[in-house]
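Worked problem 6 (solution included).
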Amino acid sequence: MKLRFLLPDLLPEFLAELNETWIDQLENIRNEKLPVDYFQFYKAVSSVYSSKIEGEEIDFDSFFKHKFLNVHYQPDYTRKADDLFEAYQFIATHDLNTENVRKAHALLSANLLPKSEHGKIRTNPMFVIGNDDRIEYVAASPSHVAIEMEQLFKEIEIIKSRNLSPFEAFYYAAMIHVVFVKVHPFQDGNGRTARLMEKWFLLEQLGDKAEGIQLEKNYYLNLTDYFSNLRKLGLEYDHLDYTKSMDFLLMTIRSLI
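Solution. The predicted structure is:
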């Protein structure tokens, strides 16, 4: 099958930007001494910062106390981050495929959308609004969403069948993030799901050590770049230029330095 989304065209340029020693940082993260379970700690980090990108008023200190020290807060304060935490738990034991992405979306959107919209592909137009209340881009038209999703997951299966190097894994993980968020298949929770999928692909390719890759925190700390790099591809879905995605593709791998 001919690839349309997950193209290797930018891979040589991507690899030329990298330093082999960066991968060594993954081992350093895995050897950290933490006061709680390594996997649970970094799932909490992912959940908080992915939520904060979407404007949720939750801080890591409070969520850490809530999750690990049995400190109680008002349910509304932690609920959506808790839902996202459940989704990160889910991906640790399930394959990255279209059915499981819908299930993960149902988990993370439990208190975001009505149950009828959990994991359901939208059938209405979608405009993505940024934090500055401007239109970031126009998502795929309703008549094309299901087709685009089917194509994306077929390509993911093809890429997963290859023996990727660690750097190639970072490249394709970020590309999956870009493509998914541009399609924007759900009514809400697309950004959360896209970041989840990037982590999911890295976990499948790199193993447990990928748990400590704080991609969600990095995106939050560089939020202006996060949105501007996505915006560089264009406004209209039908005219997106994925050759302009390099700055976005490098964001996670550079965060290892």
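Discussion: The radius of gyration is 17 Å.
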